[in-house]
Protein: EF-hand domain-containing protein
Amino acid sequence: MKRLLLALMLVGTPAAAQGIPDALRGTWGQGACATPSALLHVTARSVARLPADGPARLVRLRGLRPFGDWTLGIGAGAEAPRVLLRAAGDGLETMEPDAKLRDDRLPGDTPVLQWQRCTTPPPGLAALHGEGLAVLAALERLEAACQGGTTAPCIAALVAVGDVSGDGMLGVAEVARLLRGTAWALAAQDGATPAALAGATGLGAAAALALARIAVEGLDFDGDGRLSVAELGQDRAQWPAGTGDPAGRPGALEALGEGAGLLRALLERVAGP
Structure:
């Protein structure tokens, strides 16, 4: 959990501050929404194409600009993948230009894909993609909060996006959900097939639950089984006061690295001559 917060704070502020237009966001399908040949999910700064057969494509955008009546999104990474989107009546049209096509030759002969809005997911696809797509949007909100360089808003945003129950805290299941969704996003970004996505999230479920328990237990100072904003921010929201005690003299820090005997070693060292 601490590493996630640090990673979010270190990533540069995205250039796509305005995001993809609201009217283009949401879930779209090719063919019948009950049995689509592919899904397209659009957030403020991400486009995820999820074929029923074949590799997923997740493009997380670092820049957006108008391109005629299209919106041109430019992805992060060395290849800087591009996606073009525009409204088409009640539907959506997209193009995904080849990486070798120069900007001044866009769109070239790139095929136009047609999508219709889908509001209710079929159970199988909901089980496969629902949690990951929800966490994808949550990650964007976390990035927006965490990339300002201060810790307190980052921690508050983490609780806000992960708090499913609405109690203002994070339980084991809520932390595990964030970890499972992140595993889904990583697999989708790597071009996983539906079977590989199912494997990544399925195999990751037990690991996510174990890691969530470790994260909660390691920061749950009041022992209620949940993480509050205050607990997540303990020793992190602001620099600790430079207090200490002038009495005593330095002991050997190496003695404190003894795993389970950490507290015992600390007491023995500070009490010894």
Summary: The chain has two domains: 15-117, 123-233.
